[in-house]
Write a sequence for this structure.
């Protein structure tokens, strides 16, 4: 079970020095882990910064919004009693709000509480949004590349862990597909493909970033083609080499 901080009590008070120390810590963690995703650091002593200070001090614990509001009020009497802490999540901070599952546990966050789960990663939904903005170049590993593609096969659109569009009795697994099978499987040359597409196309085709066939990568599709097409290809190649 996740620890719940009491709503009232001495922990609501923090000295200005302590607040500054926590803010500095948040600032360096933000620089190291979060700014590259486009998470913005709120200005020192702003309401948002104070929410983060309190949540950071009690990282991984459930803190009631009234506790945070009371804390903010001790620092800045001009700030209201009803602080909207849940908005931190939309801005990318890994804050879990009401009804959200706490990773690696079965617990859900109960109404009125917030949990700052990690400083080393933005909120996963925010990562996916920022990856979608950045596109393929933003992805640093296969998981993130899959996120760019909304966890779908680039070629047929089947969604990971859901029934496959081409073979509905199978659950879709996404594999690293070559865009160009003659080149090594670097991230620039990878698209997520379902096990069915990856199997059908073998190493016979070159794909574009959207998973569409762009060229042949072996003679096999030509040999399977109709006689007329083969003749046409032969003629065209002779023209080109002649
Ligand atoms: Zn597919």
């Amino acid at each position: 079970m996740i620890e719940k901080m009491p709503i009232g009590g001495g922990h609501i008070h923090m000295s200005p020095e302590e607040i500054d120390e926590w803010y500095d810590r948040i600032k360096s963690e933000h620089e190291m882990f979060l700014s590259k995703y486009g998470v913005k650091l709120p200005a020192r002593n702003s309401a948002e910064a104070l929410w983060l200070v309190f949540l950071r001090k009690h990282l991984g614990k459930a803190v009631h919004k009234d506790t945070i509001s009371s804390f903010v009020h001790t620092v800045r009497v001009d700030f209201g009693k009803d602080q909207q802490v849940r908005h931190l999540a939309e801005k990318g901070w890994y804050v879990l709000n009401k009804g959200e599952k706490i990773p690696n546990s079965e617990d859900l966050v109960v109404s009125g509480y917030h949990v700052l789960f990690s400083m080393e990663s933005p909120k996963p939904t925010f990562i996916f949004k920022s990856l979608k903005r950045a596109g393929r170049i933003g992805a640093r590993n296969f998981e993130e590349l899959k996120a760019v593609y909304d966890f779908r096969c680039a070629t047929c659109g089947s969604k990971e862990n859901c029934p496959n569009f081409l073979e509905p009795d199978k659950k879709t697994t996404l594999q690293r597909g070559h865009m160009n099978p003659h080149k090594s499987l670097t991230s620039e040359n990878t698209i997520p493909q379902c096990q069915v597409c990856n199997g059908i196309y073998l190493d016979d085709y070159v794909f574009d970033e959207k998973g569409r066939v762009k060229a042949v990568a072996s003679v096999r599709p030509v040999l399977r083609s109709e006689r007329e097409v083969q003749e046409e290809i032969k003629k065209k190649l002779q023209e080109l080499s002649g």
